[in-house]
Amino acid sequence: MTDRLDSCLVPRVLALLVSCGPGLVGAQAIRTTLLGAGTHQPVAGAFVILLDSAGREVVRTLTDENGRVRLDVRPGAYRVSVLRIGMARWSGKPLLLAAGDTITTPIEAPEIPVLLSEIAVHAERRCRVRPEEGSAAARLWEEARTALEATEWTIAHPVYRFQTRRYVRTFGPSGNRPIEDQRYLGPGNSAWPFRSLPAESLAARGFAQLDSEGAMTYYGPDLPVFLSAVFLAQHCYRVEQPKGDTADPRIGLGFEPVERGRQVDVAGVLWLDRRSSELRELLFHYTNLGGWAGRGAQGRVVFDRLPNGAWVIRRWSIRMPIPRVVTRQVNMPGVAAAAAPVDTVGIAGYREEGGLVTEVRTATGQLVATYPDEP
Question: Between the CA of residue 147 and those of 31, 42, 304, 353, what are the distances in Å?
């Protein structure tokens, strides 16, 4: 039996429109800047969302490093909503856009901090599906979801290009030091290039799947999967804290499957910074995966905020066990003959596949951020 990873936990591109496309009547537009109401300074990396009169989202955009907002819409009545990591969501007064109107007045959004430091971890032990509004888990999910959506927007939006490096590492049975390390460049300075399976497919067939030759393929929850209605409905959430270190500044939103079905699923933790409310990393492992295949199988996704306020996945990986067939002699009860040989499957080591971003540029080639090519 062999192991392989045909599709790593890297995001499937999901476009978030920043305009309504061709066919707009006139030239209705919002060309403005988002400012903090208290500081009057531009706010970078915040979602500005346009809602219709029924409260449905029409379009959204992520402000750039100068807080600029660029939206094109049809004539109608709207309300602006601002979603910013670490701040309470805010909605402005209704506005009316007639044919040919352009709004240039700065948007000033109140800055009311979301204090994750006040969440009492011991207050919520129960794992809840779709935590109710006002609960500690709901507050954590709101902050984590904002970062996930901002990361997805950054990856899907055509203004950024990524230089990536992939690697394959082999570890011994202890799983500590790699005994083999292979690295190779990603496909040039390109848009985010990788895919996971759709949430519906993973729900039906599982996050780890055997092919006709008995090889196991492991899949991770990429951003569209994690944000999907299917995943949310099939998993529950609770607040967690780091174990052992009371000085650890993180707070976690744990998740696990609601039911233990036939398919392989995932459970894990989204770790956020208590002070900034920023999402740091996603750690997950596989559930309902018995025998050798489930021993130590796990994944990791690390998030980072760019200097201009946008979000990216800094690095990602999936670690898979490598099986080893061991033949041992077993004495059969009531059999006088020699012990019978029996094959058992153990762990020969681990194979880890992943990648990391080394450079981020705009579509025009301007350097946004560089990262060290970590081991």
Answer: 24, 19, 10, 24
